[in-house]
Design goal:
The protein has 226 residues and is an alpha/beta fold. It is 44% helix and 20% strand. The strands form three sheets. Strands 2-1-3-4-5 form a five-stranded parallel beta sheet, sandwiched between helices. The two termini are 34 Å apart.
């Protein structure tokens, strides 16, 4: 995950770089709004963190410029201005959240992770996966094949989603177990095989083309078709 920061306070910028680096985020700080926009047009980020009172183009104008070409990437305003008018101005230009200085870094991190999680969820909610005549509507958690609705248990649905999102790549039993069960739950290869068989009966049994494939010794995958 990459965070692009607009911040002209040298000390705070260094602290932000160090903090996000310690959280395994890639972070880059730019002190001037005009330079920030030039960088933005060349390389996108997963979240934008904008101070308002900076040289060149102020943070609210930067926010608006970002939103003119990017409607989805989260924007968090970070500023010493705490008046309601400043907040209204920032939100009206497309900001997602607002944090007033001075702040605790733990609160900043919670806000950042919440915005990133919300973005991931919104992407997932709009997702429609198609494999041949199989359709998985993630927003509604529904599955159809050749237009016929298929009823799956939550575990079967999640297993199908794991295979579908692999886009034809083989998924090992170990990876399936890690994604499908909590770390505290012990599973055997036989358990995975049982659920694969459950899924095959519902997805493939009534169709000549079998989508759920086995690569012996490696794992399972969904046939992507020609």
């Amino acid at each position: 995950m990459k965070i692009l920061v607009l911040e002209d306070d040298y000390t705070l910028a260094r602290e932000l770089l160090a903090f996000f680096g310690s959280k395994d985020f890639e972070c880059e700080c730019i002190y001037d709004g005009q330079l920030f926009l030039r960088h933005f047009l060349k390389q996108k980020a997963d979240l934008y963190l904008l101070d308002i009172n900076v040289p060149g183009v102020n943070g609210v104008e930067v926010c608006q410029a970002i939103r003119n070409v990017d409607k989805k990437t989260p924007i968090l305003m970070l500023t010493a201005f705490g008046e309601i008018e400043d907040k209204v101005s920032a939100f009206s230009k497309g900001a997602d959240d607002y944090l007033v200085k001075p702040f605790h870094f733990d609160e900043l991190f919670m806000r950042v992770t919440a915005l990133l999680r919300r973005r991931e969820n919104s992407v997932e909610m709009a997702e429609l996966i198609e494999v041949g005549d199989l359709r998985i509507n993630v927003s509604e958690s529904t599955v159809t094949r050749a237009g016929e609705r298929i009823s799956l248990t939550p575990k079967e649905y999640r297993l199908l989603l794991i295979l579908a999102r692999a886009k034809g790549r083989v998924v090992s039993k170990q990876n399936i177990a890690e994604d499908l069960w909590d770390d505290n739950v012990l599973t055997s290869p036989n358990t995975i095989e049982v659920y694969i068989n459950f899924l095959r009966k519902k997805i493939d049994s009534r169709h000549s083309e079998k989508l759920i494939q086995t690569r012996t010794g490696y794992g399972y995958y969904l046939k992507q078709g020609d």
